[in-house]
Design goal:
Elements lengths: L2 H10 L11 H12 L3 E7 L2 E7 L9 E6 L5 H6 L7 E7 L2 E6 L2 H13 L4 E6 L4 E5 L4 E7 L2 E2 L3 H30 L1
Antiparallel strand pairs: 1-5, 2-3, 2-4, 4-8, 5-7, 6-7, 8-9
Helix pairs in contact: 2-5
């Protein structure tokens, strides 16, 4: 299949993410990339704060998402969702991630150069079958907060953790904006 047909198919398919649409904080960057002749995005996430329960099986498909925010979160919203459970409770803040298919290896190198100029430390060629660049920001937090029907952390800890997670979410936005500016200049 040609790059142009792959791009057309990718950009017209139904969004299969849990949310069913591109996250608002990264949508402008995705649109900028998809308008370029030699690039298209295959997946994206603007970063998120997640509270989830992880069963003993450890299987991803058995994990229950209890709270998700793709923007800064507020303590009272998060706290409402924290309830003791027999499963493990985890809090995670993830950085933005973007997968970009490139027409040629030279196009991938150009994109990687722009990522470096935008201050992104984790970007690389993820696949050569379809030339794909994976771009990930670095701030990340992950911690267990409960298990065996007991919450293991205090509200003070949760507030401090959430404060740092929100700072990291702001850093995501800055890096997304930096990359948007580098690609359009």
């Amino acid at each position: 299949m040609s790059f142009d047909l792959d791009k057309k198919n990718a950009l017209t398919k139904i969004d299969k993410s849990k949310k069913g649409e591109i996250d608002k904080p990264i949508k402008k960057l995705v649109d900028i990339i998809n308008k370029k002749q030699d690039y298209y995005t295959s997946s994206s996430c603007s970063g998120r704060i997640i509270l989830f329960s992880k069963p003993k099986s450890g299987k991803k498909q058995d994990t229950k998402w209890l709270f998700v925010s793709h923007e800064k979160a507020n303590f009272s919203q998060l706290k409402k969702q924290i309830n003791p459970t027999k499963d493990q409770l985890w809090l995670r803040q993830e950085s933005f991630i973007l997968h970009v298919c490139c027409r040629t290896l030279e196009d991938a190198k150009k994109l990687l150069n722009l990522c470096e100029k935008a201050g992104l430390k984790r970007a690389g060629i993820h696949s050569l079958k379809k030339i794909m660049v994976e771009i990930i920001n670095t701030p990340y937090l992950n911690t267990i907060i409960g298990e065996k029907n007991e919450i293991l952390v205090s509200d003070r800890f949760l507030k401090a953790w959430l404060n740092q997670a929100n700072i990291n979410m702001e850093k995501n936005i800055v890096k997304i904006d930096n990359l948007s500016k580098k690609i359009t200049s």
